[in-house]
Design a protein that fits this description.
The complex is a heterodimer. Chain A has eleven helices and no strands. By secondary structure, chain A is an all-alpha fold. By secondary structure, chain B is α+β, with helices and mostly antiparallel strands. In chain B, a hairpin with a 5-residue loop joins β1 and β2. The longest helix of chain B is centred in the middle third of the chain and has 31 residues. The chains are: A mainly alpha, B alpha+beta. Chain B: GO terms for molecular function: sigma factor antagonist activity.
Chain lengths: ~190, ~250
């Protein structure tokens, strides 16, 4: 904890996450501890959103962070920010866990349960209620309903676009397109650069 | 899937909302479409913002566990190869290098025609060269284990899905290899991962190369007194620790 504080000591100002990751790639455990503090909240929140189960979420969060340590050298600042790199790894890992654990029939059941017990606006609302960042919430509101439902079900619930299409009773092609143009609208609203 | 159709998949792909097959097909497409690669990078960055928005602190004990764990996990070196191996295995690199020059020449030629794409292709060529060097290093290390004067074969049990495996150990090389025959392909989106058993603790020893139903794979890392090895089925890319029951477990002779 104090190694972390030392690294980000006020004299030099906060260290960029990307720079920390470069140090981590060289085997610097103090840099890893400092990086941990910055990414663990977003990673755990995202994994938990996809997996629901708290203990499984902890387990996958641990896997993600150990993986960050192991493959830190693959991070390439030219291809995106460190936070994006870590979150991409976390989402992939959470989704892989969900899909490896569920046979096809289980997943159909899960889709059915999702559709039976709650309506999607409620799912979206639940997610929105947890959103800490006003900007993201505001930008999600600029999406059409189908765009917003498609993006949030796919990302926060880890569903495939096929499952989203079934759940929303929309043609596959429509959901595919909405995922893309919904994200593009979000990108522009949030001012994200690749 | 047609190219135009593939292109609309950028959003679904950036959200990991595609099946394993589509992921593979799309990644092939990405390598040939720098525009798509740029779009995917931007959409992923957008998705990451959605992720950050649901940030939640895990129990404090997790920190201790993770920090302890990284002390036990070896890192990949920048080439993607375990640092220790990089230092110990140095092979002549005749063919890959000449291939590299050829690839570079091809990129320069493409640069005239395609402008900006070239830089990215050069990166691809370098990645391919590194992969090829790794493959050659591994093949040579494998050959050294299999042909070592003290090489010892330890038969493994039948694999559950058919096929069998035999471990070849060489104490002088301090390495082990797994020779399999008739091993069924892992389920979609899964890989066979190899492990060395350090007295009950499984140490990752690399992945079985895909499509290697009947061949030999070198275990990554040194034996260093390992008491056995195992094979598990893991999600694509492998896991830091086994997440499934082993399909094969072999004890090394004392």
């Amino acid at each position: 904890m104090d190694e972390a504080a030392a690294l980000g000591s006020p004299a030099v100002g906060p260290v960029e996450l990307g720079d920390l990751l470069v140090q981590v790639a060289r085997g610097d455990q103090d840099a890893f501890a400092a990086m941990y503090e910055r990414v663990v909240g977003p990673v755990f929140g995202l994994v938990r959103s996809v997996l629901r189960d708290p203990s499984q979420s902890e387990e996958v969060t641990q896997e993600v962070l150990v993986e960050v340590w192991r493959v830190a050298a693959r991070f390439d600042p030219a291809k995106g920010t460190a936070m994006t790199w870590v979150m991409t790894l976390a989402h992939r890992r959470a989704v892989d866990r969900v899909r490896s654990e569920q046979s096809a029939s289980d997943r159909e059941l899960r889709a059915a349960q999702l559709s039976g017990s709650r309506d999607y606006d409620h799912v979206v609302e639940q997610v929105e209620a947890r959103l800490e960042r006003e900007q993201v919430r505001r930008c999600l509101r600029t999406l059409t309903q189908i765009q917003r439902q498609s993006v949030t079900l796919a990302y926060y619930k880890g569903l495939t676009y096929r499952e989203v299409a079934e759940l929303l009773s929309q043609p596959l092609g429509t959901v595919k397109t909405r995922l893309r143009d919904g994200l593009i609208r979000l990108r522009d609203c949030l001012g994200v650069q690749g | 899937m047609k190219t135009a159709e593939l292109h609309t998949l950028t959003g679904a792909y950036a959200l990991d909302a595609v099946s394993g097959d589509e992921r593979e097909e799309f990644e092939k497409h990405l390598r040939a479409c720098s525009f798509c690669a740029q779009e995917v990078a931007e959409l992923r960055a957008t998705a990451a913002r959605l992720g950050q928005a649901v940030s939640e602190q895990p129990p404090a004990e997790l920190r201790e566990r993770v920090l302890r764990r990284i002390g036990e996990v070896r890192q990949e070196s920048p080439g993607g190869r375990v640092a220790e191996e990089a230092a110990s295995v140095r092979a002549p690199r005749g063919r890959p290098r000449s291939w590299h020059i050829w690839a570079l020449a091809a990129c320069v030629a493409a640069a005239g025609a395609l402008g900006g794409v070239a830089v990215w292709q050069h990166q691809e060529a370098q990645d391919a060269r590194q992969r090829s060097e790794r493959a050659q290093d591994r093949a040579e290390a494998l050959a050294r284990v299999l042909s070592a004067s003290d090489a010892k074969a330890v038969p493994g049990a039948e694999l559950p899905g058919g096929g069998s495996g035999t471990v070849v150990l060489s104490q002088s090389q301090n390495r082990a290899a797994l020779v399999v025959s008739g091993m069924p392909a892992p389920p979609k989106g899964k890989v066979y991962q190899l492990w060395l058993n350090d007295g009950g603790r499984m140490r990752p020893a690399g992945l079985m190369p895909p499509g290697s139903g009947s061949e030999a794979a070198l275990l990554e890392g040194k034996l260093d007194g390992a008491s056995g090895m195992g094979v598990t089925v893991e999600p694509d890319g492998g896991s830091p620790q086994p997440t499934s029951e082993p399909v094969m477990l072999v004890d090394f002779p004392a």
